[in-house]
Automatic annotation (TrEMBL):
Name recorded for this polypeptide: 6,7-dimethyl-8-ribityllumazine synthase
EC numbers for this chain: 2.5.1.78
Any one cellular-component term (Gene Ontology): mitochondrial intermembrane space
Lineage: Eukaryota, Fungi, Dikarya, Ascomycota, Saccharomycotina
Keywords, ordered alphabetically: Riboflavin biosynthesis, Transferase
Pathway involvement of the protein, from the record: Cofactor biosynthesis; riboflavin biosynthesis; riboflavin from 2-hydroxy-3-oxobutyl phosphate and 5-amino-6-(D-ribitylamino)uracil: step 1/2
SUPFAM superfamilies from the UniProt entry: Lumazine synthase
InterPro entries: LS, LS/RS, LS/RS_sf
Length: 169
């Protein structure tokens, strides 16, 4: 039995009234696409309507914090505010310090973003030392050694928006 991962949620959720934003980087696209797919499928299974999942993209993970902020602002300005956002990126260690700087700064910026936008920001960033680690965490390595982590992010989004989103209480 797998031990790691979100597993079952603490109760049944009805996501039918939620508006969810997914904003994803385009680096490492094959892995990104699997993660985005996993997040969407899980949210649909929790009742989120397809038309209420809005997808935007940025070039790379470094662009996720500012892109997320502007994406949230734009949806609000259109009168279609989001209840939660899932920024998704895949960072894979290369041969320089690039990976460390982007992993650290992006993580902190996404964490701090929540206090600025007042909606939950899910942490959909893989920070992997190898391509194999990233493939496994998207559920697409040959051995299917791990589950698709996008599914956990979709479930976390529905739970956080329902419990702590702008319309939760
Ligand atoms: N190396 C990875 C990047 N690098 C690109 C940066 O995120 C950024 O887009 C660029 O420096 C322009 O500002 N991005 C990833 O998402 N994943 C990587 O592995
Ligand atoms: C995208 C870059 O700036 C690049 O030089 C980083 O190299 P590496 O991924 O090998 O650390």
């Amino acid at each position: 039995m797998a031990v790691k991962g979100l597993g079952q949620l603490d109760k049944e959720y009805d996501g039918s009234k939620l508006r969810v934003g997914i904003i994803h980087a385009r680096w490492n696209r094959v892995i990104i696409d699997a993660l985005v797919d996993g997040a969407i499928k899980r949210m649909l299974s929790l009742g989120v309507k397809e038309e209420n999942i809005i997808v935007e993209t940025v070039p790379g993970s470094y662009e996720l914090p500012y892109g997320s902020k502007r994406f949230i602002d734009a949806q609000k300005k259109k009168g279609e505010p989001l209840d939660v956002v899932i920024p998704i990126g895949v960072l894979i260690k290369g041969s320089t310090m690039h990976f460390e700087y982007i992993s650290d700064s992006t993580t902190h910026a996404l964490m701090n973003l929540q206090d600025k936008v007042h909606i939950p920001v899910i942490f959909g960033l893989l920070t992997c030392l190898t391509e194999e680690q990233a493939l496994a965490r998207a559920g697409i390595d040959e051995a299917h050694s791990m589950h698709n982590h996008g599914e956990d992010w979709g479930a976390a989004a529905v739970e956080m928006a329902t419990k702590f989103g702008p319309n939760a209480f």
